[in-house]
Amino acid sequence: IKNIISRPDGGVGLAGERIKAAGWVKTGREQGKGSFAFLALNDGSCPGNLQVIVDSSVAQLSQITPTGTYVHAEGVLKQPPEGTAQKVELKVEKVLEIGGIEDSKEHPYPLPKAKISLEVLRKKNVHLRPRTNTISAVIRIRNALSYATHTFFQKHGFLYVQTPIITTIDCEGAGEMFQVTTLFSEADKLEKELKEKPGIPQKDGKIDYGSDFFEKQAFLTVSGQLQLESYACALSSVYTFGPTFRAEQSHTSRHLAEFWMVEPELACADLVDDMNCAEAYVKFLCRWLLDNCLDDMEFMVKNVDETAIDRLRLVSSTPFERITYTDAIALLEKKFQNAVEWGIDLASEHERYLTEVIFKKPVIVYNYPKGIKAFYMRLNDDEKTVAAMDVLVPKVGELIGGSQREERYDVIKERILEAGLPLDEYDWYLDLRRFGTAKHSGFGLGFERMVLFATGLDNIRDVIPFPRYPGKADR
Ligand code: 4AD
Ligand code: MG
After folding, report:
1. Choice from 153, 176, 223 to test ligand 1 binding pocket (greatest atom count within 8 A of CB)
2. For residues 403 and 367, what is the distance between their CA atoms, to the nearest angstrom?
3. What residues does the Aminoacyl-transfer RNA synthetases class-II family profile domain cover (predicted)?
4. Nearest by Cα to 165 from 104, 244, 91
5. Whose CA is nearest to atom 28 of ligand 1?
6. What pLDDT does residue 4 have?
7. With contact defined as beta carbons under 8 Å apart, do 180 and 210 qualify?
8. Beta-strand pair 159-160/238-245
């Protein structure tokens, strides 16, 4: 019981105190031949429940005991009898509000008492799953990681910059963008009939479709990086934290079509500074959870992954391994032989082999072949590799992708052309190199992958409130 017992002055109640508590019944049972009931009440603030005792003279017990019922009650806190697990219980004197359960044939309560799989829950009742112990703990951990993120960057003097969600450029150059249109574009076939109707926007005698709204084809952002660079090249170190979108056909437990990304951009920083920042940030997140979210982490250890806390301890205290891509390939060739050669992108089995078998801790792989990385990464002197780095962690694989940015005008221009990207779309980006170009670096941390790593859950779809993936964008 943490916030569930709140006094009007915001303090935490003690035995003997009169308090009000509100929450949802986890379990309720009538006792003493129906003379009173025990309720386990939870308001989502912590994994523990408040034990509540209600006499039949105070409320109709059959109405108040079903799982899921909302109860707002006033009473006095009592010390429970010796040997009880509870530290304190609430003896109700007055029920202020009840939000009942309609558990009928037509509408049976959708969450069964018995444990159900996260997959069934996600598919059938994604909107009710915050009522389960697991998802509510995940969401509190997610909240803590989000608070820790702002704390870390603010503490180190980074400015929070909100980069746009609707954009006209493809940051990663991978063509995995969702296009933005208006509802009217759906009406293509009905053009004639629609034109007659009042209120439909028209331009030069034609219906004004979505693409015309911005006068250019617009998309949902895959990363805020390029826009962030224009702020880093004026305000020094900045970061953004927002939703990003990828239209990739990845049906894996590590990919979402809509995910949140934390992206810092560091002015006056090279690849080593970038790796140092990434490592310090991930360590800070792990330590934060140990210091501020231990009860939820203990829940994870008991119910989801018994190594979850050990993993946080290890990561927060052990230096990450740093290894070049070339050296990583040499190690992988020993194990995977012909399936691996210099120039390939690392597959998740390779990432897991490095972090779980060889080094048994996070590994930063850097200096990747330029052919498998984005155009904006700084070309190394060997002209074969770029100053890129990925942070790989046990269980999850790639958690962070980052790089030193190409700050040389001639080189970046050449790389854009080489990548087959339209130069005119990136002309504004070249301005950053034309006028006062500066060394700078940054990275993106996949926020859901961090939640996955912390909680020990198996599927990324269970660590975001409403997951979007190929075939699913419900509610
Ligand atoms: O490696 P990525 O593609 O890097 C970028 O987008 C850079 N522009 C970031 C930067 O330098 N500012 O993506 C960064 C991270 C990945 O390491 C991964 O953790 C996560 O974002 N990520 C995804 N997470 C969930 N679902 C997906 N489909 C993801 N794609 C990338
Ligand atoms: Mg990447």
Report:
1. 223
2. 9
3. 139-465
4. 244
5. 255
6. 45
7. yes
8. parallel
Nearest residue (CA) to ligand 1, atom 5: 444
pTM above 0.95, yes or no: no
pLDDT for the residue 192: 66
Are the CB atoms for 109 and 90 separated by under 8 Å? no
Whether the per-residue pLDDT at 134 is higher than 70: the answer is yes
Angle between helices 427-434 and 409-418 (to 10 degrees): 160
Residue type, position 320, single letter: F
State how far the alpha carbon of 393 is from the alpha carbons of 196, 290, 343, in Å.
59, 18, 21
Tens of pLDDT along 253-277?
A: 999 999 999 999 999 999 999 999 9
What are 5-26's pLDDT values in tens digits? 454 454 455 778 899 999 999 9
> What distance in Å separates the CA atoms of residue 227 and residue 169, rounded to the nearest whole number?
10
Residue 255 Cβ contacting ligand 1 at under 6 Å: yes
DSSP state string for 242-279: EEEE------STT--SEEEEEEEEEET--HHHHHHHHH
What is the enclosing helix (H) or strand (E) of 286?
A: helix 271-292
Per-residue CA distances from 163 to 160, 231, 431 (Å): 9, 10, 18
CA dihedral 118→122→125→127, nearest 10 degrees, is 110
Evaluate whether 252 touches 258 at the Cβ level (below 8 Å).
no
Q: Is the predicted pLDDT of residue 105 greater than 90, yes or no?
A: no
Q: Answer yes or no: is the ipTM higher than 0.95.
A: yes
Q: Tell me if 171 CB under 6 Å of ligand 1.
A: yes
Cα–Cα distance, 181 to 164 (Å, whole number): 16
Which bound ligand lies closest to the C-alpha atom of 399?
1
> Are residues 368 and 386 in contact, defined by beta-carbon separation less than 8 angstroms?
yes
